[in-house]
Amino acid sequence: MLQLRDADESGPAGGPGSPGSPGAATLVPGGAGPPFEPAVPPARQTLRPLSVRTAGRAGRLRQYFVFRPGTIEQAVSEIRVVVLPAEDGEVQSVWLLTEIDHWNNEKERLVLITDWSLLVCKYNFISLQCQHVTRIALSAVDTISVGEFQFPPKSLNKREGVGIRIQWDKQSRASFINRWNPWSTNIPYVTFTEHPMADADEKISSLCRLENFQTQLIQAVKKAHKEGPVPGSANGVLVLERPILIETYLGLMSFINNEAKLGYSMTRGKIGF
């Protein structure tokens, strides 16, 4: 071990740089002492970039036109014009959900529960126009299934999560031709899941909760069966907890559609559609 010692402690005086020179110091072997121990760096700490994640999610939120200030309020106000009081009754609630078609394509939808109908509206949140409405009589609904999505074992394009399927006219499956036609609208059921940004905006999240939608829908269907029974059919709705089967195998079309979010009104570069 080496020690740093002042020059005046040893040796004869000499010329410059000698041990006797003022302010000079020499390195000499040191005696016994504690061994030199390098400073131990602090334990590694994991830093979570919360601000980065939050900013990224906020940036994605702005890409959806429905979450822009005032858009959903205007849409909910204007969508009520599609309701036919004589056929549908009064509007009970409005929901923002994602429809999953029989080919696993995602589609942004406004859904209205009225006294006697379920209205599924294709709404353009860019032009603020309702482009198409599917009207389902609540008294015709016979089965409501809630559960996780399920696919055939050899399916190449699967999804996770929970959905709700509403069936009517005592038909559990579409015909073979309709099942294999991606553009077919003659499907005896409709399937919903939560909007992908359902929990990103506190003001709109109440319109996107699938569990709340399920509760209100079941109540409305039971009331419709009681007040307007269908002649010649057993009235009542069957509520089941079971997997939601989507019979897709290759799924190339739905993969492209869902990855690009083509079923949503969004900004895409310098344009929006």
Topology, please?
Layout: E1 2-6, E2 25-29, H1 50-63, H2 71-79, H3 85-88, E3 91-100, E4 106-114, E5 117-124, E6 129-137, E7 141-150, E8 162-168, H4 176-179, E9 189-194, H5 202-205, H6 210-227, E10 238-241, E11 244-245, H7 252-259, E12 267-268, E13 271-272
Parallel strand pairs: 7-10, 7-11
Antiparallel strand pairs: 1-2, 3-4, 3-9, 4-5, 5-6, 7-8, 8-9, 12-13
- How confident is the prediction overall: mean pLDDT? 80
Name the beta content range. Answer: 25-35%
Q: Structural class of the secondary structure composition?
A: alpha+beta
From the spread of the alpha carbons, the general shape counts as globular
Q: What series of H and E elements makes up the topology?
A: EEHHHEEEEEEHEHHEEHEE
Q: What fraction, in percent, of the residue positions are helical?
A: 10-25%
How many E-type strands?
Answer: 13
Largest sheet: 9 strands, mixed
The oligomeric status of these chains comes to single chain
Q: Ends: how far apart?
A: 76 Å
Please give the count of helices: 7
Please tell me how large the radius of gyration is: 34 Å
Description:
The chain has 273 residues and is of the alpha+beta class. The protein has helices spanning 50-63, 71-79, 85-88, 176-179, 202-205, 210-227, 252-259; strands at residues 2-6, 25-29, 91-100, 106-114, 117-124, 129-137, 141-150, 162-168, 189-194, 238-241, 244-245, 267-268, 271-272. Strands 3, 4, 5, 6, 7, 8, 9, 10 and 11 form a 9-stranded mixed sheet that branches.
